[in-house]
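wait is this the right file?? whatever heres the structure
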């Protein structure tokens, strides 16, 4: 019998839907989808199960990505929403890993991002991973650097411009050299990430602004919202041509 597939919502969409709430509780299902007898990579089967379990809460008071769960609400409704989530877990015999759970916080980590009422911030651990990085000495180390940058790209203005020299160095396998220009670009990136932006959460129906910057090698854009005559970034996108 062919496997049934179920698209898993991109984690960024789930993270975006959590910002603007006052309180959060992050939970991790004990052993998660490993409890189901299937190949480890087939997470869609488990996602289908939890979607069915929490069908009345997902998108309203909860978000669920495989075995990562988040309850979101106003301060007034948080205990009520948690009670509803626990009632569902108890009905299905789901257990939680207490060492990976956090309850009733105003800011917390969900799917690798920091979420709060004002918006979304990068995971400090990802920032530190670049800040503490030594200057690459091999192509493999450059590849690791570009991978770390990619994981933070939504927070980096003109990220492709900032990392263009790194990618160009990858195309010179036989004559790899970490140039002074590459070093300057790396240090500039580290300074930028020392004070990363808070990505604002737009409200339904409000007017947003899109700015583009195009060069010979890169096209970059930023979506912003305006509040009290101040523009704040919502999302950065940057691609090499």
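ok assuming it is, sequence goes like this
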């Amino acid at each position: 019998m062919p496997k049934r597939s179920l698209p898993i919502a991109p984690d960024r969409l789930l993270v975006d839907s959590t910002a603007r709430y006052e309180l959060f509780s992050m939970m991790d299902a004990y052993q998660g989808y490993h409890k189901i007898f299937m190949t480890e990579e087939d997470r869609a089967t488990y996602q289908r199960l939890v979607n069915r379990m929490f069908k009345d809460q997902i998108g309203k008071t909860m978000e669920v990505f495989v075995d990562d769960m988040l309850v979101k609400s106003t301060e007034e409704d948080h205990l009520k929403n948690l009670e509803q989530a626990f009632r569902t877990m108890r009905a299905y015999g789901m257990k939680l890993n207490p060492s990976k759970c956090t309850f009733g916080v105003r800011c917390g980590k969900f799917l690798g991002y920091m979420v709060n009422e004002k918006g979304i911030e990068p995971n400090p651990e990802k920032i530190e991973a670049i800040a503490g990085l030594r200057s690459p000495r091999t192509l493999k180390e450059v590849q690791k650097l570009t991978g770390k940058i990619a994981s933070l790209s939504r927070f980096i203005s003109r990220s492709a411009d900032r990392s263009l020299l790194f990618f160009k160095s990858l195309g010179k396998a036989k004559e790899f050299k970490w140039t002074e220009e590459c070093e300057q670009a790396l240090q500039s990136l580290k300074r930028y990430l020392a004070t990363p932006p808070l990505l604002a959460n737009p409200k339904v129906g409000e007017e947003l602004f899109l700015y583009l910057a195009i060069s010979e090698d890169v096209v970059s854009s930023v979506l912003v919202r305006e509040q009290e005559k101040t523009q704040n970034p919502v999302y950065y996108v940057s691609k090499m041509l």
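Residues 1-6 have pLDDT under 50 and may be disordered. so i think its the right one actually
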